[in-house]
């Protein structure tokens, strides 16, 4: 699935079909519910944005319509609605969030995680909620049960807060869990009293001790963390870049099982073939949207280590390596190593065509996967300037062909 393949022609065909069938019959025919928030406005009529885009996909040669359950297909502001706006259509937001205030879609849930509101102490962001989310992400990545009794959650998070609360966090798991529940990203079950807020001290602890709820990540978030490497890396980029600046999160990541998530070595898992980590166009498009959102906030920022290196995106590196399908992206490559890594992955290095220190973007449209020899030529070869021109064109073309469409504008300086 690639929304970028759809043009105004297919959208207008879907609109015409909706007019011919009528809204109710159109939605029933394609299996969609009425939109609660984002409506496409066209020539005086209003149409359900997600349903129109889903139906339009079926007008592409050799393609089928998208369904509400198509992986990676959302009607939220960052997907179908934004895509329609890119095509020049008017989209209006009416009423509550797309799936209702208590049932936000995947994009909205991930937005809530990447825009966490946390307490501050001595001008630093507290690590309670990031630690809880990283622990839960690691469990989802390993395929462990989503919901746990409170005693197990409390014991696990208490240890993590004691060992890795690098800004003086107390071993009180009830604070972050209550707050994440009210953020809408943590589910609590089997309690009798209304869920407490995260404010206060004895009252919060008393509520959890009395109610002993089962809990865990909201199901759609858990499933995304479990099955989507792009989402895991994007959230990891956000949490580490936002909350752990100036700190070393490696011991925490090791303990929660996330230290081994290396974008240069996609995790195939036991018994899986390397091809399984190749991304669909929809996943590539979603990943680029997450990269662009973070890029807009972090462009020009540098880490706080002694080298002051620009902050780099794990997600962007993963997208480029996946896009390469295991082959050097230099069209003039004379051959790459026939050998592979211990995990049967090709020996490739992801590189920025234009260095970040020279104003380049940490974005797949300006990054390439190169074999070690081509990387060396691009970096210090006599023909490096000519090769960089070629690679910049190749990166843009590969990006568009993979589902990214035309590369979005860089962040404003």
From TrEMBL:
Source species, domain of life: Bacteria
Enzymatic class: hydrolase
Ranges for domain HNH nuclease: 315-376
Entry EC no(s): 3.1.21.-
Pfam families associated with the record: DNA-SBD_ScoMcrA (PF26340), HNH (PF01844), ScoMcrA_N (PF26345)
This protein's UniProt keywords: Hydrolase
One term of GO molecular function: nucleic acid binding
InterPro entries to which the protein is assigned, alphabetical: DNA-SBD_ScoMcrA, HNH, HNH_nuc, ScoMcrA_N
The protein's name in its UniProt record: 5-methylcytosine-specific restriction protein A
Organism from which the protein derives: Streptomyces collinus
